[in-house]
Design brief:
EC 3.4.16.4; single chain; alpha+beta; four-stranded antiparallel beta sheet; Muramoyl-pentapeptide Carboxypeptidase, domain 2; two-stranded parallel ribbon; about 350 residues; Zn_M74/Hedgehog-like; globular; serine-type D-Ala-D-Ala carboxypeptidase activity; about 30% helix; protease
Length: about 350
């Protein structure tokens, strides 16, 4: 009996030890899992200098255009295509902006080395054509660009300009506008202003007469416009055609909304069917400009189609983007310098 009792006790002791050992291993594994959580789905793990994923932003229209003067209303409005109808002379706070289009469209900023350098500091464009799935382009992930003065800077829903940024070399382009006042929205950065004159002069030789509607827009002005749209249409709708403060391409001084000299369809969806729009689509790249928010690319740019919103990026990049039928987000891929 004593022998059997001893054997039973030994079995119990050994079994208990095995169970304890198994539980200890399971606990250690669980702890290791907790210590190594998966990377965030948005923005990639380490969004350092290259801005992680460029995210093309989103929804559909860029809205930046709502003409500041309150005259045009951007047709695009909530549903329309032209988000940025920026227009005429005055820069009324609601006015055309009230239109769905306001300046939200300015998502792409100017930044010479920004994306094109592919993060390697060279001036050669990345020329990438990444798949749309690589882009995040939403306000959920936000980076401040490190090259705001570059004429290839990328500004959209993910990449914003430094707070209160004002371009250093704003001038009045020597071209026709749909208004006569010498106000901010008549200005552009020097390099873009000179290129714009060449573009307008070339159009005139082809019998197409263009006029500026809305160029530079300050962050404070964008704040007013965006807030007006939100009050009218709600945040979700406003974000499809108007950029939030700091995210507007117009603030870079490299973008401008264009129309015919008669001002008809300025920053409105009907502009798409005009001879002016067709000429811009066919020839803008020859002078360093691109149609920043092209049709069918809303899920990448984050804004509705705006055939009137052109952005200066330089002739090489403009030709590459246009010939490949891609967006600035796709061109830069993830090579977008941002501040740490």
């Amino acid at each position: 009996m004593r022998k059997w009792a001893t054997l039973i006790v030994a079995v119990i002791i050994v079994g208990g030890a095995l169970i304890y050992f198994a539980n200890s291993r399971g606990t250690a594994k669980d702890e290791a899992t907790v210590q190594n959580p998966p990377a965030l789905a948005q923005g990639g793990g380490d969004q350092s200098d290259n801005g992680g994923t460029v995210d093309p932003e989103g929804t559909s229209g860029d809205g930046d255009t709502a003409s500041d003067n309150g005259s045009t209303s951007d047709t695009e409005g909530t549903s329309g295509t032209g988000s940025d109808a920026t227009g005429g002379a005055g820069d009324g706070t609601t006015g055309q902006n009230a239109g769905q289009t306001d300046d939200g469209k300015d998502s792409a900023a100017t930044g010479g080395n920004s994306g094109q350098d592919a993060g390697n500091g060279s001036d050669e464009p990345a020329g990438g054509t990444s798949d749309n799935s690589e882009f995040v382009n939403t306000y959920d992930v936000e980076h401040v660009v490190s090259n705001p003065t570059s004429d290839t800077v990328l500004v959209n829903k993910t990449y914003r300009l430094p707070e209160g940024y004002v371009p250093p070399d704003l001038v009045y382009p020597d071209v026709a506008f749909t208004f006569s006042e010498k106000i901010d929205k008549r200005k552009m950065r020097k390099v873009a202003a000179y290129a714009l004159k060449e573009l307008f002069d070339a159009a005139k030789q082809d019998g197409v007469y263009l006029a500026g509607v809305s160029g530079y827009r300050s962050e404070s002005r964008q704040t007013t416009l965006y807030n007006n749209y939100v009050d009218r249409d709600g945040v979700k709708a406003a974000d499809t055609y108007s950029a939030r403060p700091g995210h507007s391409e117009h603030q870079t001084g490299l973008s401008i909304d264009v129309s015919g000299t008669d001002g008809k369809c300025a920053a409105e969806s009907c502009f798409a069917g005009t001879k002016e729009a067709k000429w811009l689509a066919d020839h803008a790249y020859e002078y360093g400009f691109i149609i920043r928010y092209p049709e069918g690319k809303e899920s990448i740019t984050g804004y509705k189609y705006e055939p009137w919103h052109i952005r200066y990026v330089g002739k090489d990049i403009a030709e590459d983007v246009t010939k490949k039928d891609i967006t600035l987000e796709q061109y830069f891929g993830s090579a977008v310098p941002v501040s740490k």
